[in-house]
Amino acid sequence: MTRPLPVTGRDNAYYWEGVAKGDVLIQKCTACGSLRHPPSPMCPDCQSLDWTTVKATGHAVLHSYTICHHPLPPWEEGPYAVVLIDLDMEDSDARPRIVCGTRGIANEDLRIEMPLSLVFEDGLVFAGPAQEGGAP
Ligand SMILES: [Zn+2]
């Protein structure tokens, strides 16, 4: 069985379209400038419905993680890591977080605050080892 693709709708299509092109896009309120994720139609800070997107640079830092041992979905070889990462953003000091899997990092090598790079594979985004060019 292959991994099911995310369910997309009006509020989150921009995110998955960005990931398909190799970008993580985060919503930015055009009224107050705050960033928000996961996608939502309204700004939680000022209730504006107007928003745009800003790009993540591709660098991130490990905020937290868990190792899933079972039950394993049929497309995963376990145990596998689920990580919460702080994104480095273009033109912003904000560090929005996303949840994703990992590629190229052994579970036992995960360390809180370790630098990471975004890896795009099969229409999804993963956290991988920090690439040359430096951590944020
Ligand atoms: Zn706002």
TrEMBL record:
Domain ChsH2 C-terminal OB-fold, by residue range, is 54-121
Q: Which Pfam families match?
A: OB_ChsH2_C (PF01796), zf-ChsH2 (PF12172)
- Domain ChsH2 rubredoxin-like zinc ribbon, by residue range, is 16-51
Q: Which InterPro entries match?
A: ChsH2_C, ChsH2_Znr, NA-bd_OB-fold, Thioester_dehydratase-like
Extract the SUPFAM superfamilies matched here: Nucleic acid-binding proteins
**Name of the protein in its database record:** DUF35 domain-containing protein
Provenance organism:
Catenulispora acidiphila (strain DSM 44928 / JCM 14897 / NBRC 102108 / NRRL B-24433 / ID139908)
